[in-house]
Amino acid sequence: MIGLPRVGITPDINEMVAPETEYVLRINYVDAVSKAGGLPLILPYGDQIEEYLASIDGLLITGGMFDIDPVLYGQTARKSYVIKPVRTAFERDLIQGALTRHIPILGICNGMQLLAVCLDGQLVQDIPTEIDGALEHKPAQSATVAQHEVEFSGESRHLRIQNGQILRVNSVHHQAVLPSERYETLAHAPDGVVEALEAKEGGFAVGVQWHPEYGVAEIDTIVFDDFVAKAREYSQRKKCSNDFNA
Fold this sequence. Notes:
single chain; about 250 residues; alpha/beta; Rossmann fold; nine-stranded mixed sheet; 6 helices
């Protein structure tokens, strides 16, 4: 009997001085995975990347109130940014390993941006100063409230989306993903900001710029259901392979 697919979730880390430093993860990430039928597992930072990848069936890269170092995507910083090098290095190694193994990946907000960087993409470092006429993508209101529309376009290999569908989503970011040859743009905001992407090759590797764990938009449940469904398929293939090689 095959159990629930194991979904590894990356936590954030606070800035308290050791030994009081804490991992931080909002419960709605865990609840969203559980509701979709997955077994959520929190992944502490460390060098045990191979062990994590051998144990999980899906990888969820969460958001965070910090930025990706522009050096990682070949740019020079144009202003002062809050970065978290230890977390970013850990998540990069996980993403790159998961891409190689075709482990399903879901990147949310900052996680989508890092997924794009791992797929050789680049970022808009600061939407308000770099995109003329941009919407407010980091409003003062709670992420429980929809902020702006996104329009879905093209065909997804994995997500059940409808071309031309327009929905309202929440928004908590000031950086954005630039288009790349290695991923498809699945959705964009009215100001042109990329709101969802999908790797063109390999397994399920999807990023969304909004926060579907809050369940604000109709698409949010679909994002987690389709992600966990792919994790379940991966788990089944892994079990069959292990049984064959036993």
